[in-house]
Every structure is written in C-alpha cells, then in structure tokens.
Amino acid sequence: MPYSENATVEEYFDTFTEPNGDSWLVIDTVITDPTYLTQPYVNSVAFKKLRDAAGWDPTPCRADQPR
Asked: How many domains does one find in the chain?
C-alpha cells in the first residue's frame, strides 16, 4: 500500500481477563494518511494466552547447507 510523508500509525495495547479466567492481549492499529486514505485504516488482532504449554513444541532453527 502506498503511503505519504503525512502518514501516521497509532497502536493501542489492551489486556484483560474474562470471568472464566481466559487472558487476552488485543492490539489495535490505526493508520491515517490524508494523501492516500479517505478514512483511517483500522486493524485489530487478539491473542489468547494458553493456560499451559499444551500444543507448544518448539524446534531449533537451522540453515540448510548449500550443496
């Protein structure tokens, strides 16, 4: 997406816990650019904290050697 020198980005971070104990992190991003956008572009993502490491199986990174 093109953007001008007048573009601004604002981010808002919010955490909360639901009554059932679930913890959330919500990130809202607002992009404003009067040159290319007729209104602010808003994006929101939500991350739920897992109660334990179930489903978490990290593996070490590796770089393949050239042949």
From this structure: 1
Q: Is 54 or 39 the better-scoring residue by pLDDT?
A: 39
Domain range enclosing 42: 8-48
- Mean pLDDT along residues 4-16: 97
DSSP 16-40: EE-TTS-EEEEEEEEEE-TTT-SS-
The mean of the pLDDT values for the chain is 92
Average pLDDT of span 33-60: 92
CATH of the domain at 14: 2.10.70
Q: CA triplet 39, 45, 50: central angle to 5 degrees?
A: 170
